[in-house]
Specification:
Blueprint lengths: L7 E4 L6 H12 L5 E5 L8 H12 L6 E5 L7 H10 L1
Parallel strand pairs: 1-3, 2-3
Helix pairs in contact: 2-3
């Protein structure tokens, strides 16, 4: 797999200061990323189904660079945290 096609995964525990950073990052790298996905907590937590949905995101369009942002990952339970480790 070409390193330029590996999805970039950004995980944050707090949105404080993050929004400004990510907007700047995207503005500077927009042509590079063909797809940007954001995962936010459902009902106050990141769910295992949301993490599993990442598998589908990274399987299609393998030749294009993708950015996946997971916000408030500290809300994820242990099972969900383990699922993200398996993804890596």
């Amino acid at each position: 797999m070409n390193i330029s096609t590996i999805p970039l995964l950004i995980i944050t525990n707090s949105n404080e200061g993050f929004e400004g950073y990510i907007k700047k990052f995207i503005a500077e790298n927009t042509p590079e990323f063909k797809e940007i996905n954001t995962i936010e907590p459902e009902k106050n937590e990141i769910t295992i189904d949301q993490i599993r949905s990442i598998y589908g995101m990274i399987k299609h369009i393998p030749q294009q660079r993708r950015l996946i942002i997971i916000k408030s990952f500290d809300s994820a339970k242990t099972l969900t945290q383990n699922a993200i480790l398996k993804l890596l």
